[in-house]
Design goal:
The chain has 275 residues and is of the alpha/beta class. It has one domain (4-270): Alpha/Beta hydrolase fold, catalytic domain (Rossmann fold). It is 33% helix and 18% strand. The chain is built from nine helices and eight strands. It has helices at residues 44-52, 80-93, 106-117, 144-152, 158-169, 177-190, 199-204, 235-244, 265-270; strands at residues 4-11, 14-21, 28-32, 56-60, 99-104, 122-128, 222-227, 249-253. An eight-stranded mixed β-sheet has the order 1-2-4-3-5-6-7-8, with helices on both faces. Helix 3 links the parallel strand 5 (99-104) and strand 6 (122-128). Helix 2 packs across helix 3 (106-117) and helix 5 (158-169) crosses helix 6 (177-190). The longest helix has 14 residues, at 80-93. The radius of gyration is 17 Å and the shape is globular.
Length: 275
């Protein structure tokens, strides 16, 4: 039977909900989700496959998502650096000096920042469906279908989120709508304040000097996993990451978009994560 443990860990005055899956004596892997995404947005199939590969998996709700603390952003604005600090607080909460680190989308930016500014905490780095930290106007813009979804201004709620996930999935691989809907309904039910997650986009809009540090300083063994048809960060973003990080490996996954809600995709990506 797979061991599972939930706990709250402190990050300054905040409390972060976390979950550890697997044997605590096994090497740790920290999973970092994207903007506005709770820990549960990572499919259980991916976690299970990673545990089968011999690690303990730790995932968590970012501040302003799920069961973690809600922040008054207007009174206490935060940045990518603060969100990265939360990641270190999770490791500290489990008494871990370092871990393998895998981050998706915004989580991939946080993972890059850890690898640059806290290299002793990162045993290996996997960046999934993400983009180089900093400012890169030369990289390709989002796909028209993603821009059209944002422009449509659908009212918030599960139906709007399902429609977004359909766009995220892309047109090539089948979209497991029942699984996505179940996750999104659960996420809504466990969120202290569903609207607070939008604060992540405000945090991402602030480019601080720490995000301009060169990725060439990353020394952790690095793998880039990118969807061939990612509508948010087209494949050029993954190629730019691979070019910027010395010795990194790039895996472009055929037919993959920006999420893992297609049959068999979670296991496929889990097998690519650097351990």
């Amino acid at each position: 039977m797979v061991q599972t443990e939930e706990r709250f860990v402190p990050s300054g005055a905040l409390r972060l909900w976390t979950e550890r899956v697997g044997d605590p004596d096994h090497p740790p892997l920290l999973l970092i989700m994207g903007a506005a995404a709770q820990a549960i947005s990572c499919p259980d199939a991916l976690v299970t496959r990673l545990v089968e590969r011999g690690v303990q998996v730790i995932r968590f709700d970012h501040r302003d998502t799920g069961r973690s603390s809600v922040v008054d952003f207007d009174a206490q604005p935060y940045t990518i650096a603060d969100l990265a600090g939360d990641c270190l607080a999770v490791l500290d909460g489990y008494g871990l000096a370092s871990a393998h680190v895998a981050g998706a989308s915004m989580g991939g930016v946080l993972a890059q920042r850890l690898a640059v500014h806290a290299p002793d905490r990162v045993q290996s780095l996997t960046v999934i469906t993400s983009t180089p930290m900093g400012v890169h106007p030369e990289l390709p813009p989002p796909a028209p279908e993603f821009e059209a979804h944002l422009a449509a201004g659908l009212p918030p709620g599960v139906e709007s989120d399902v429609a977004l996930f359909r766009v995220f999935n892309g047109p090539v691989r089948p979209f497991d709508e029942p699984a996505a809907r179940a996750m999104l309904e659960l996420a809504l039910s466990r969120a202290t304040d569903p609207a607070a997650a939008a604060n992540h986009h405000r945090a991402c809009a602030t480019i601080t000097p720490d995000l301009l540090a060169p990725l060439s300083s990353i020394t952790a063994p690095t793998t880039i996993v990118h969807g061939q048809v990612d509508p948010v960060f087209p494949v050029g973003h993954g190629e730019a990451l691979a070019a910027a990080i010395p010795g990194s490996r790039l895996h472009v996954v055929p037919g993959m978009g920006h999420i893992l809600f297609s049959p068999g995709l979670s296991e496929e990506v889990a097998d690519l994560i650097r351990l």
